[in-house]
Amino acid sequence: MDSHNQTQEMEFVLLAFSIFQSHHIHFFLVFLAAYLVTLLGNFMIIILVLLDSRLHTPMYFFLSQLSCLDICLSSVVVPKILVNLIRQQYTISYEQCLAQAFFLIGFGGCEPALLAVMAYDRYAAICQPLHYAHLMRSKLCVQLSVAIWFWGFLDSAIYAALASKLDFCGNHQILHIWCDIPPLLKIACSDIQVNKLANHITSFLIGLGPFLFIILSYFCILASIVRIPSNTGRRKAFSTCASHIAVVTLYIGNGFLNYNQPSSGYSLESDALISIMFCIVTPMLNPLIYSLRNKEVKEARRKVFNSWRTAFSSF
Fold this sequence. Notes:
3 strands; globular
């Protein structure tokens, strides 16, 4: 049997689970609660956008896309964590590992592009209000959405194709809580120069490119807000951007820490915490950020819940 076939038949041991081993039931309940909150919050956003006609705007269309991505991103990692914790078997097969890394990078890669499009939407609304309907027309929004998903999964396909060529001679222990490309590269015994080059190129295109676009968009937005004569007008304009700024800061900050660690890395506990913040905590917080101070979302939630209450009371 050749080495590549042996690689495909092996299992990886996820060493970060050693952190949770002594209290695995408690951590199981914590991860389960976080996952349920993530599903509930993000599904609520999607349902509200679908049911309330006042939310049928480009901003909320892309917000529902963000909620969909958050559900998918969390679902890639949390169910496997829950299974491993309850079974106390901290392994993952080679095929499952590559699949998890593929979807993790795919969904994670879609979010920077989506956040950049949402920044452009705010730029068009504040800086080009008379042309907003044309700049953010429905057909363009759908095209941008398709491009975002294609862009993210093109990136993950490149990563997964390169990772599938790696050999793992004897070290099957991954210093992580789930499968991702950087931890796999650390234990590979084959040449990883092409993988590193691809990582640098895609990090710029997928991560830094959208981030710079967001910065440029908000520079223009800030310049327009400063020119608004009334304090009330300035506060109202800025409030429409506040939630997006909070989500961008949370995502970019955690994403940078997760994928741009020093070569020596952090401790196993720090790696696990940063990854949990990126793939579990951030998707859980995003719907809360958008719903706590958003008047339209609050009104839509109240309207939908009242209609449901009326429907159930009639039975």
